[in-house]
């Protein structure tokens, strides 16, 4: 189950709930639930309400990580309660690359009308990540299929820019943005696509000053 839509459909079957019943129980609309199930809404804003109504872990519903049955009893969750002590948000960004001499300038512009991703504070601690260094963005294209698919969401750690062979990084190179597996080969660097229809981008020693590592991928979600 790689997407929120698949996980929601699964847990609705487990709980024996139709769209109408879930809409009433979660105080949302059937249209909202239908849009999530069809994949039209990829980052729904009503995850807390849906998770509460279904009695599942909101982090599992959002990411697929952990045990969906680990969510606390429904009476613990209160409407309009501030959960900032338990969860932190990562904003989705439109990443703009400004042309210039030498290194590119990365401008992080929040995506309009997009809800932030919610993560348990314990997740950052377990991954040894700092929330402020984590940026979320969409993957576009099919060059990294099947590891990353078109419209997947990824989080990159912008503090982690030292290349480790075989890891996936967001990169800027000659006014283009990439997300690729990176391997060093002697004095050059290869940006590798998992889809074999796409040839590696080979960056030779003379062009390495034009390569900028934005950050290492630390999470993906469908």
Automatic annotation (TrEMBL):
GO terms for molecular function: DNA binding. It comes from the Bacteria. Keywords: DNA-binding, Transcription, Transcription regulation. The keyword DNA-binding applies. CDD domains: HTH_XRE, S24_LexA-like. SMART domains: HTH_XRE. Residues 8-61 form the HTH cro/C1-type domain. PROSITE patterns: HTH_CROC1 (PS50943). This is Uncharacterized HTH-type transcriptional regulator HI_1476.
